[in-house]
Amino acid sequence: MDRLLFSSLAAAKTQSTVRAQLTNDLANVSTPGFKKSFNHVLLRAVKVTADYGYQTRYQPTVASSNIVDLQAGRTNFTGRALDIAMEEKTVMGVVIEDGQTAFTRRGDIKLRADGTLVLGNNLVVAGEGGEPIVAPPETIITITREGIVNSTLPDQPEAPPVPVGQILLRDASEQVLARREDGLYEPKGANGGGGDFDNGPGLVSVQVGTLEGSNVSAIEAMVRLIDFSRSFESQINVIKESKDNDKTGATMMRTS
After folding, report:
1. What confidence tens digit (pLDDT) does each residue in 212-246 have?
2. Rounded to whole angstroms, how far apart are CA atoms 21 and 172?
3. What is the 8-class DSSP label of residue 18?
4. What residues are paired with 216 via a beta bridge?
5. Long-range contacts of 229-235 (CB under 8 A, 24+ apart)
6. What is the pTM of this model?
7. Contact criterion met (CB below 8 Å) for 95 and 124
8. pLDDT tens, residue by residue, 93-107
């Protein structure tokens, strides 16, 4: 009886974690550059420590990290000079509240009133050194495939562009990234502290004038969510039936 309850409870906890990930993925189907999480939930055995019961009993518990799947989403052409879509496993750095760096695949860049480059959700775009990139006033801003931000004067369109800064781009092909509570990415093990990581061997580049959509398939996520919901209900029913059987057995023992 106990083994059945432990197994059902572990399965219910695991399915609850996966359902939460799927729900978050579905909520961000239309978010530019959103990346779904890995659908694998790892389990580890944890010994139950108590002054009673079997000392050899182990209970499987969820040991899952919210790992980001960097598979590319659909690219949508916008023609806007400040819209960029990161290629391959490239990620872009942004400045978070404590001055540290986190990463994203969102690329809808715009200029704030003071000339600072920010994303559509008002996160500040990070330069190569982790600092904000500020464009000179009354200039035209362009971005190269390498992430270099250039400025030109409107009355001097043929003049050579002046570099303003280099967007912080990293190749994450050899770096495992975990999703933070704010939806941004950080190296696995940073535990919410953010931070930069060593660039991978791949070429970092962006497509200008395009935006990457979410890599979440709404149909696939809905089907999996329904499947996990049914399985979760089945595990809860097993636990309830085990409880009823235990009560029935105890009643029979008292009357015998």
Report:
1. 988 777 788 788 778 777 777 777 777 777 766 66
2. 22
3. H
4. none
5. 229/19, 231/11, 231/15, 232/12, 232/15, 232/16, 232/19, 235/8, 235/9, 235/11, 235/12, 235/15
6. 0.72
7. yes
8. 999 988 899 999 999
